[in-house]
Design a protein that fits this description.
Layout lengths: L2 H40 L2 H34 L2 H35 L6 H30 L4 E4 L2 E4 L2 H5 L2 H32 L3 H36 L1 H7 L6 E2 L3 E8 L4 E9 L2 H7 L5 E2 L13 H27 L8 H10 L2 H15 L4 E3 L3 E2 H4 L6 H32 L3
Antiparallel strand pairs: 1-2, 3-6, 4-5, 7-8
């Protein structure tokens, strides 16, 4: 193992662990704001209790999530200095806006919301949580636009051996970045929806605070169902964008080796990367891959063999991650749909309630698989088509240094993860005060 591999492993570990906290923060902030809005408009005290209870879990997740994100910023300078020098003019400006506008707005008003229950009018207090929710998701937007530049570089010019900002409007209207935003935010609402559904189901199975958790369950059901359907639809549009901008990623996602028109999709595939073929191709649906990629069943889809081997992403990991993400997304639609159908008599279906409890981790996994597809599928490029990942690593960093910092990082994250699980479990079990 060299410094490049360990640096990639370290950044992947930090990103994936940080992203355990991000989706719940983004999604739950919106749903807590919805609950408090219901309280303000209806005067029903149960919704106030709901906002406080779920808001407490949101705050735990938010606080620990902030800590886990700090290390990512440092790694751009310590492990990826060449990358930072190459795209800092563009990437840095987007992250600076995220930090100085969205994050500080979010941090300020979260304090107003926490300490303002008895000091502000209900409408002003409700406005505070909406500002937190909007700022949180704006923070996500700026970060995804920065990642969108890495996926589809636009608005730049190459000067003095680096990418320099030429058109800021092109950067912030990058369609790839916006596609990611409209995929990640609804997916975060799925995480929050199933989080609420799972905890509510746990309490309903025990008959505790029945009215409170039935109302909470409804919020979770509607969020999970609506945004599971929306994410599936947007995922198709996102796939169209990937087909246009990153055809090698699309080919890896589908283990598609030969360029062909009327490209089929196989319901069962097992790739054989070494021999550049699939061991099994069963149950083909003619033209479906062409239709999904280009909205035309006769369209030509490039195969992996069209790309040099050193420009192909890791096929097996990308392929399996994509299949897992899509499979889990389908499961979410089914479960949320079933819960919606029996929403008025959920206690009559204990098996469904138990399934919802065990489903809590699955949307998190779907998020992780999605990011593996996005980031591993972009390889070998750190900035697609411009800079290879191997060219972005810091020249002075040593294998020993990265290995030591990786071990320390993993140790710290294990402690933070254990603290998060303990606190969420503790306060979720207690129920509303």
């Amino acid at each position: 193992m060299d410094a490049l591999f360990l640096s990639r492993l370290q950044f992947a570990a930090a990103t994936m662990f940080h992203f355990i906290f991000v989706p719940l923060t983004l999604g739950l902030s919106i749903l807590v704001a919805v609950m408090e809005t219901k309280y303000v408009t209806s005067g029903n005290e149960t919704y106030k209790k709901m906002a406080k209870f779920w808001g407490k879990l949101f705050l735990i997740n938010f606080a620990l999530g902030v800590v886990t994100g700090i290390t990512l910023e440092f790694q751009f300078g310590t492990n990826w200095s060449r990358y930072s020098a190459y795209v800092g003019d563009i990437f840095g400006s987007l992250l600076a806006i995220e930090a100085t506008v969205a994050f500080f707005l979010e941090s300020t008003f979260i304090a107003v919301w926490v300490f303002g229950w008895d000091k502000l009018s209900p409408k002003m207090h409700c406005a505070a949580i909406w500002i937190v929710a909007i700022a949180s998701n704006l923070s996500g937007l700026w970060i995804l636009l920065a990642n969108g530049f890495m996926q589809n570089p636009v608005g730049y010019t190459l000067q003095n051996g680096r990418a320099e900002l030429a058109n800021f409007l092109d950067v912030i209207t990058n369609p790839f970045g916006w596609m990611q935003f409209f995929h990640v935010i609804p997916a975060s609402l799925i995480v929050a929806g199933f989080f609420i559904m799972g905890i509510s189901a746990w309490h309903l199975l025990r008959g505790s605070h029945t009215d409170f958790f039935q109302k909470s369950m409804r919020v979770g059901i509607y969020a999970a169902l609506i945004f599971s359907l929306f994410t599936a639809f947007e995922g198709h549009m996102h796939g169209n964008e990937v087909a246009q901008v990153q055809p090698a990623k699309l080919a890896a996602m589908e283990a598609h080796w030969e360029t062909t028109d009327y490209a089929p999709m196989y319901l069962l595939q097992i790739p054989d990367v070494k021999n550049e073929e699939n061991l099994i191709e069963a149950f083909p649906i003619p033209g479906l891959l062409s239709l999904l990629a280009f909205n035309d069943p006769s369209a030509t889809v490039q195969g992996l063999k069209d790309f040099p081997k050193d420009q192909r992403p890791p096929v097996m990991l990308t392929f399996l991650s994509f299949r897992a993400m899509v499979g889990l997304g389908t499961l979410f639609i089914v479960l949320a749909g079933l819960a919606w159908l029996v929403r008025n008599r959920l206690t009559d279906y204990p098996m469904l309630l138990k399934a919802l409890v065990w489903t809590i981790p699955l949307p998190y996994l779907a998020h992780q698989f999605g990011w593996i597809v996005a980031e591993v599928g972009r390889q070998p490029w750190v900035v697609y088509g411009l800079m290879r990942t191997s060219e972005g690593v810091s020249p002075a960093v040593t294998t020993t240094q990265v290995g030591f910092s990786l071990a320390a990082l993993v140790g710290m994250y294990l402690l933070l993860g254990a603290a998060d699980i303990f606190l969420l479990f503790k306060y979720a079990r207690k129920g509303p005060q």
